[in-house]
């Protein structure tokens, strides 16, 4: 039997936490549900961050701080928030109590404070979707539109469940792509550094030896020695050019023409272009399917998919499709 640390919500919207002995997490969740609680997080000690003083303490609006201007929240944070909200609302908790619980559960101050402001907006009469629209850097158009469809159709819990599944799948795909690209990127970096090291430090040591051979050296060897000598003597020029080129490319990519050209090259580049195309198509299909399944009208769903498309070439193609559908 193992010890599990849990966090759960009461029917009154209070957050409780504690330890429970069981053979697996499923047993802990079942026991909490039998006691009338809504299990939110269950893990072995050390894997679940405890919140000091949170147990058996009611959450109030006054306890929520005002919103400062800070950095954006990561997708993993949004994914966890959505899953917790879906669980609480599916269990029958009102939206304001569910927001209070998730605010106290949030690990990042930015997200905690954003939820606090959203809770205030909801209590002042705004819809949940309207409150989310105040934070476009945290909640993208896809999120807002699915919540809006869920509110209008009376299935907010289902919409949040689908959103959570969508975010989890998107995170899995992103992690798989990063894992697949990690090894080739490391090889390219190590190979490039090895070539620079060889031309800058290794070949110059053989220059004197090769000079004694005079014209007997092949043309290719002479060319290599010339390049090595230039790199060794004028390495600082290469550094300046690399830094200048990096800033120049950044400035160009910041323009609409540069971003479009970069995205088009990404779709056409050798070896990895096919992977990028498949990822973009999968993202389009998954996003559009999730929106339509949640009751969002087709034209509105196409507008949302276009807005969240990361590739400018794909975005332009989606715009043409949307205009054609109209």
CATH architecture of the domain at 75-168: Up-down Bundle
**Strand tally, please?**
3
Order of helices and strands: EEHEHHHHHHHHHHHHH
Average of the residue pLDDT scores: 81
Account of the 3D structure:
With 326 residues, the chain is mainly alpha-helical. Among the domains are: 2-43; 75-168, Receptor-associated Protein (Up-down Bundle), CATH 1.20.81.30; 265-325, no CATH class. Helices cover 66% and strands 7% of the residues. It contains 14 helices and 3 strands. The protein has helices at residues 25-34, 75-90, 95-105, 109-123, 128-132, 141-153, 156-202, 207-211, 219-233, 235-253, 256-268, 272-293, 298-308, 312-325; strands at 2-9, 15-22, 38-43. The protein has a 3-stranded antiparallel β-sheet. Helix 7 packs antiparallel against helix 12 (272-293). Residues 49-71 have low confidence and may be disordered.
What would the keywords be for this entry?
mainly alpha; 3 strands; three-stranded antiparallel sheet; Receptor-associated Protein; 7% strand; 326 residues; 14 helices
Summed up, what is this model?
The protein is mainly α.
Topology:
Elements: E1 2-9, E2 15-22, H1 25-34, E3 38-43, H2 75-90, H3 95-105, H4 109-123, H5 128-132, H6 141-153, H7 156-202, H8 207-211, H9 219-233, H10 235-253, H11 256-268, H12 272-293, H13 298-308, H14 312-325
Antiparallel strand pairs: 1-2, 1-3
Helix pairs in contact: 2-3, 2-7, 3-4, 6-7, 7-9, 7-12, 11-12, 12-13, 13-14
């Amino acid at each position: 039997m193992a010890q599990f640390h849990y966090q759960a919500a009461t029917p009154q919207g209070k957050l409780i936490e504690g330890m429970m002995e069981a053979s697996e997490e499923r047993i802990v969740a079942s026991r909490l549900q039998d006691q009338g609680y809504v299990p939110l997080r269950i893990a072995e000690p050390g894997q679940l961050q405890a919140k000091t003083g949170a147990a058996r303490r009611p959450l109030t609006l006054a306890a929520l701080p005002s919103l400062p201007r800070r950095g954006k929240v990561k997708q993993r944070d949004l994914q966890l928030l959505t899953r917790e909200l879906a669980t609480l609302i599916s269990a029958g908790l009102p939206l304001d109590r569910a927001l209070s619980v998730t605010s106290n559960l949030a690990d990042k101050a930015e997200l905690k404070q954003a939820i606090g402001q959203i809770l205030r907006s909801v209590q002042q009469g705004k819809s949940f979707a309207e409150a989310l629209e105040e934070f476009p850097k945290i909640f993208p158009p896809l999120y807002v539109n699915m919540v809006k469809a869920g509110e209008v159709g009376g299935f907010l819990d289902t919409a949040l469940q689908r959103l959570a599944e969508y975010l989890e799948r998107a995170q899995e795909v992103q992690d798989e792509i990063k894992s697949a690209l990690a090894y080739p990127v490391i090889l390219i970096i190590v190979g490039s550094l090895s070539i620079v090291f060889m031309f800058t430090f290794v070949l110059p040591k053989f220059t004197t030896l090769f000079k004694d051979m005079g014209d007997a050296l092949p043309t290719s060897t002479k060319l290599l020695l010339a390049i090595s000598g230039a790199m060794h003597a004028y390495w600082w020029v290469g550094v300046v050019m690399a830094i200048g080129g990096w800033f120049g490319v950044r400035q160009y990519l910041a323009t609409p023409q540069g971003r479009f050209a970069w995205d088009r090259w990404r779709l056409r580049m050798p070896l990895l272009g096919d992977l990028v195309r498949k990822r973009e198509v999968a993202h389009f299909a998954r996003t559009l399917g999730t929106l339509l399944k949640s009751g969002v009208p087709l034209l509105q769903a196409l507008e949302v998919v276009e807005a969240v498309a990361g590739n400018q070439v794909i975005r332009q193609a989606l715009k043409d499709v949307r205009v054609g559908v109209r």
